[in-house]
Protein: Class F sortase
Amino acid sequence: MGRHARPRPPHRIALGSLALLGAASAVGGAVGLGPHLMRADAPAGGDRAVRMAVPAPGPDPVGTTPPGPAPAAAPRPSSLSIPAIQVRTSLETLGLSPAGALQVPVRPERAGWFDGGPVPGQVGPAVVVGHVDSVDGPAVFARLSSLRPGDVITVGLGDGSSVRFRVTAVRRFAKDRFPTAEVYGPQPDPQLRLITCGGAFDGHRYPDDIVVFARLATTS
Structure:
């Protein structure tokens, strides 16, 4: 087993600086830019600890209600498959901490679904996030930026069914110019967002975010 394949205890994870924004603020643009920004520090002990910017959700600036938490009866997503980049992972369920910070996947080889939004396959933008790397090497979304329009993403659900999406765009955004409404705003159809860090790691953080946009293809 190579060094990237060995188990990584949680205290060794280096968290990327994802701009995971719940909604846009009614004042001053995107939530998380300025006084609303909250940070969750990587646990001590990593030799390359970085910080993850986690803004609190805010009101929708266009006066509509963003998609809320999935109904309790809805089957939760359990797995994610992206053949084009050889990704096959189980999904953690991510919520918000008491302080309003978005939780992040505990293990770098697993992605996580944010349960404050829709289940994949429901109307609106379902959000899945993952680390790009850890102190031990590449993580689950290390190759996310190499996806191309037309690539297939399959989300397995807890009831045994699955939902297929096709990539429509892969974009890179500077963290201080993250298009909150475009990524998290209400949509008329089922969509998917995959998010990880991007750009050159400077020893403390990544300057950008990679966002994959996808639309529903089929269910089974």
